[in-house]
Design brief:
Radius of gyration: 16 Å
CATH class: Alpha Beta
Oligomer: single chain
Helix content: 25-40%
CATH architecture: 2-Layer Sandwich
Strand content: 25-35%
Number of domains: 1
CATH superfamily: Dimeric alpha+beta barrel
Largest sheet: 4 strands, antiparallel
Shape: globular
Number of strands: 6
Organism: Pseudoduganella rivuli
Number of helices: 2
Protein name: Transcription initiation protein
InterPro entries: Dimeric_a/b-barrel
Strand order of the largest sheet: 2-5-1-6
Distance between the termini: 14 Å
Length: 113
């Protein structure tokens, strides 16, 4: 089993007027299916009203994220799945529910975690 990150940036969600409630309902239904299947780890969205901060090793806090990186926003789901094929299938379900393509990444296994 591997943990897969399924995500999308906020700009990818071009939901037609009046359909956001249905998109939310459909996305939550997929999450409930993942929970029922026993593959759910975590899901949520980045709170874009709270700006990021950089924290250094000496605990210095600097407002803003890395200036050279694109902003991290949108939604994400982490699932524990037996194969990439299963991950693609779940990503397709979320893409259909959210009305936008999903990025799929696998977490590297850390035996000490």
């Amino acid at each position: 089993m591997a943990k897969y990150l399924i995500s999308f940036p906020s700009a990818a969600m071009a939901v037609p007027d009046g359909e956001m409630e249905a998109v939310g309902r459909d996305a939550h239904a997929v999450i409930e299916q993942a929970k029922a299947a026993g593959v759910y780890v975590f899901a949520g969205g980045i709170d874009e009203n709270v700006p990021p901060v950089l924290v250094s090793a000496d605990r210095m806090v600097t407002e803003g994220g890395y200036p050279w990186a694109r902003p991290l926003d949108g939604g994400l789901t982490v699932l524990d799945l037996p194969s990439r094929e299963e991950a693609v299938a779940w990503a397709a379900r979320l893409a259909k529910a959210c009305l936008c393509a999903q990025e799929l990444r696998v977490f590297g296994f850390d035996p000490q975690s």
